[in-house]
Every structure is written in structure tokens, then in C-alpha cells.
């Protein structure tokens, strides 16, 4: 798989209700079993098995994962801006639901087969390009774009490499003063603390849902010395505690 893309599989045996789920990168969400209900503002999407939701970068969704026959399974492929088209406007982008289609089934399977067979990265990149072409062809182009907040995206890319770096160090990395960094982020409707916390809890959510790492270690990875305080903040963000969410697996 291309080194700059991230692929995760999410499973549950009971219904999961999550509020304010952040997507720092554009993501292809493909449901394999069960159903995903997603909403953003007044917009709602129902993603059945075999369908895909194309989620723009910097989206915040309310999500319900509903098992069918006792199981829910979905794959999420997160894509950095380098794989996406530049946005034609800074207007907020909306997710796009793609129905089941043989073209996307074949392109998805072709890409997955290459990754699982550990083919050379160049081959996997070409197969990913094929998948993205199919997504655009089937109507997902409006969501499959770089975020309309370019500085926020650059900040998230830097924080992804080192979430603990200070504001002054981050500003130097981006060739600007700290004051300019904060002012330009504010102009995009973002804040450094907000972006850092969103990224850390996005990672924490994935670790709780897809791994077996102890909650205390996940809390430490998010900068919390107390697992209890982390659980409180996690519940404030997502509407459920980490332990309760993991119990749905």
C-alpha cells in the first residue's frame, strides 16, 4: 500500500453510536456487512453493504454502525491531499454516497489484492489511481478533493508526524511566525489546539475500535497521564466511553 495512505478495518457486534467523528483526511468508507448511518448538519447518508461513502477531509460526522446478523464490518481508506484534486472552492464539501457497482467492486478488489499480496509500491499506487478514477467516474469527484483549508491541512500533516511539537516549532516548519500561523488558521475557522486534539482523538478512536491496546496506553498516546480524565474527554467528544465502545466488538 502507498506509504502515505492509511487502511483500517472496523468491526462490531452491537450497534455503535458516535457523535463528532473527525476525518482529518479524505476517506473512502466501504461497508462490507451491516449498515452505517452518517449525518452532518441537515444531511444524512445510509451506507448499506457493498456501498461506499466518500468523506471529504476535515469533515465531522455523527455515525451509527448497525450490525446485520450480529456483525458490522467496514473498511476505511484515508488519503492525503497529494492523491486528491485541488478544490475549486473553499465552500464546505459534502460526503458523497456511491451505490453498489461492478466497476467499484472490481477496482476495490484489484487494489486490495495487490496490497495483500505485498506487490511493489508502484503497482499498488497504480491500482489506487485506478480506484480513484472509478470513484470520480461514478460521481464521487466533488468529495474526492483536497480540503478547502490549505493551512489546516498542512498543519495536520505536520502534526501527524509529531503531534507533540510546540506551536513555535510548527510555525518554523511552515516558514512563518507563530502569530501568523494562529491568525491564518483562525481565518480558516480553525485553531491549533483544536486541530491537535481532533487528530489525537481520531487516532484514539481508531485504536479503541480496531486494536487491543490497553485504554491506559491509548490515553498516554493522547497526552493524558490519567486514563480516567481521558475517558471523560473521550465521552464528551464521542458520546461513549472507550471501554463501552470496545465492549461492542
UniProtKB/TrEMBL annotation:
One of its GO terms (molecular function) is transcription cis-regulatory region binding. Residues 149-248 form the HTH araC/xylS-type domain. SMART domains: HTH_ARAC. Pfam families: HTH_18. Gene3D superfamilies: Homeodomain-like (1.10.10.60). Keywords: DNA-binding, Transcription, Transcription regulation. GO terms for cellular component: cytosol. This is Helix-turn-helix domain-containing protein. It comes from Crenobacter caeni.
